[in-house]
Amino acid sequence: MTIDRNSERRTATAPDKSAPTPPDKETIIGYKLRRAQLFVFHDFINSFAKMKLRPAEFSVLSMIATTPGLKQTEIAEALGIKRANFVALMDGLEERGLADRRKGDVDKRSHSLHLTPEGQRFVKKMLATWTEHENRMIERLGGPAERDRLIELLDRLLAGQPMAED
After folding, report:
1. In order along the chain (166 residues), what is the average pLDDT of each group of 10 residues?
2. How far apart are CA 17 and CA 26, in angstroms?
3. Going from the N-terminus, what domains does the chain have, and what CATH number goes with each?
4. What pLDDT sits at residue 18?
5. Are 113 and 70 in contact (CB under 8 A)?
6. Strand ranges in the chain using DSSP code E only, listed in sequence order
7. What are the distances in angstroms from CA 55 to CA 16, 44, 165?
8. Which of 42, 68, 72, 80 is the most exposed place for a label (fewest CB within 10 A)?
């Protein structure tokens, strides 16, 4: 049996105009948000590499510094961190001597969180490093007004949405 190669020509079919066309990734909100998040996190991680500080630890230390005495559950809930993950995170901060848990006066099962003296010194350095990082991001956006505009737009996306847990 012989095959006639000339009869096997492929014919181009016209695109189906009723079929949806895939979007250009550059116009997809989720794609752009993820790329921006990766960029910001990359700068953050590089900024804090010498301090060996991750974004979640930064957030927890910031909250403890701002409102000492909050319960573990309050901070975990405010930051959207699962309880088991938060316990491990706090274990690490305690091992580093940056924060400690204190039993509640009324409910001995609950723990309030506080910075240690070393933690207070660490937070001062942390905030100086964060300010440099944040200023780089603000500069890339075109200044404080553009940062405020971006935050307003992100707030619109998040309005009424519950905090997702890590």
Report:
1. 53 68 86 95 96 96 95 92 92 96 73 95 97 97 97 92 65
2. 22
3. 53-150 (1.10.10.10)
4. 77
5. yes
6. 99-103, 111-115
7. 47, 8, 15
8. 42
